[in-house]
Write a structure and sequence with these properties.
With 415 residues, this protein is an alpha+beta fold. It has ten helices and 17 strands. Bound molecules: zinc ion.
Length: 415
């Protein structure tokens, strides 16, 4: 069925990327930029045009839609989720997508800035794309495949199902979120309205890849209280909190436990912000580990460093505040192994080699998993994300759609 289908993911993608939906980490409104709704409004409208009657955008910019079941079996409700916003790392305004047909392995020079060159030697994944059609931006902006690829692919799945009603499936929910890139993608999501048992985010890279693990994450705030005095008469009185902060930062290990010295499954302690005056200085850290108990170990270690630094100043004191940020979604997914197993089978049925990966970060999926929607991350085809060299192939996008088609069938078959 899917063999004879004329995919629409790329055509949609080329339209969606031209709509600026950049989110803003500095903004405190929700969504952080109103322009994200420009795309969400269109998505809801296009879903309604496909006959999905309840498709709508809410006041926060979330798009919800339901594709009703067409089987008598009791199939768990599955949600497909993607985010509409793009990262703030480089411009998302006036994105001009360029299709490079039948890629032959040559350098791709982006037309609006000839210094932006996509080279096979720097992006070895391109080796798998020989003969495929590659989409890039024009050299001055990001492309926005993260995550408009996921958006376009889910839209194409909806289109496929509305044109192939004989393909049996359970109830399917669609969720498009704003503000994922600033970590607030699920801040106003209505889980009742999502109404699904299990979910999949479409926000991954290489075709065939599946991510069922993220970091577990805490934040630590260290507030150092010094002693203030008039600097002209401060002898033996003043204790400068900023100088204690400097000692703490200097005491952090140089060759381990930092983002710049770790990869794979190793976590880290990472200072992200310092703010202060002589009297009082705050250091904010993020703590990351794939094992949740590993967070506690790192937090205890950091506390020891802080204690040692502060100890040399008897009149100084400190507060140490740990805040939970998110948890490794594997803790939830291991309780529901079939969610990942069915995805593996769908990838195999799409003729792809499975690549299991762990995310050195958090996703909306990890947050959704702990909000009651176990939610691994499926590949969407996005590459070199958050950069001007971002690219994606039309063929990878179509494979993502095909994988979802198999996935909804598998859920129906196994019910
Ligand atoms: Zn993303």
């Amino acid at each position: 069925m899917v063999e004879n289908y004329r995919f629409t993911a790329a055509e949609r993608f080329l339209r969606y990327v031209q709509i600026d939906t950049q989110s803003d980490p500095q903004s405190s409104s929700f969504p952080t930029t109103a322009k994200q709704k420009d795309l969400s409004r269109i998505l809801a409208e296009e879903l309604r045009q496909m006959g999905i009657a309840d498709a709508h955008m809410d006041e926060w910019g979330y798009v919800y839609a339901t594709i009703p079941a067409n089987t008598d079996k009791k199939v768990p409700v599955i949600c497909f989720c993607a985010h509409v916003d793009t990262a703030s790392d480089c411009s998302g305004t006036h994105v001009k997508p360029v299709v490079h047909k039948n890629y032959r392995g040559d350098d791709i020079i982006l037309p609006d800035d000839k210094t932006q060159i996509l080279r096979l030697s720097e992006y070895p994944y391109l080796q798998t794309q020989i003969g495929n059609d590659i989409i890039t931006a024009s050299g001055t902006t990001l492309l926005g495949s993260d995550d408009k690829a996921g958006v376009a692919e889910i839209m194409d799945l909806a289109n496929f199902l509305s044109n192939n009603k004989e393909l049996k499936h359970g109830e399917i929910k669609i969720l498009f979120t704003p503000d994922e890139e600033v970590g607030r993608g699920v801040a106003h999501v209505d889980m009742k309205k999502v109404g699904a048992d299990f979910g999949y985010t479409l926000d991954g890279g290489e075709r065939g890849s599946l991510e069922d693990e993220t970091f577990s994450a805490d934040g630590v705030q260290v507030i150092i209280h010094g002693v203030i005095a008039h600097p002209g008469y401060a002898k033996d009185k003043m204790i400068n909190a900023m100088k204690i902060a400097g000692r703490i930062l200097d005491a952090l290990p140089k060759d381990r436990l930092s983002p710049e010295s770790t990869e794979g499954k190793r976590g880290f302690i990472h200072p992200v912000r310092v703010e202060g005056i002589a009297e009082k200085c705050t250091i904010e850290f993020i703590i990351r580990d794939f094992e949740t108990p590993g967070l506690k170990k790192k937090e205890d270690f950091l506390r020891t460093l802080v204690e040692e630094a502060v100890r040399s100043f008897p009149k100084a004191r400190f507060d140490y505040i740990v805040t939970e940020q998110y948890r490794n979604m594997k803790e939830v997914l291991d309780v529901h192994p079939h969610v990942v197993d069915y995805a593996k089978e769908a990838i195999a049925r799409a003729g792809l080699e499975l690549k299991m990966e762990s995310i050195r970060g958090g996703t909306d999926g990890s947050r959704l998993s702990f909000m009651g929607l176990p939610c691994p991350n499926l590949f969407a085809g996005e590459q070199a994300i958050h950069s001007k060299l971002e690219f994606i192939s039309i063929q990878d996008m179509n494979k993502a759609v095909e994988t979802m088609v198999h996935l909804v069938q598998i859920w129906e078959e196994k019910a």
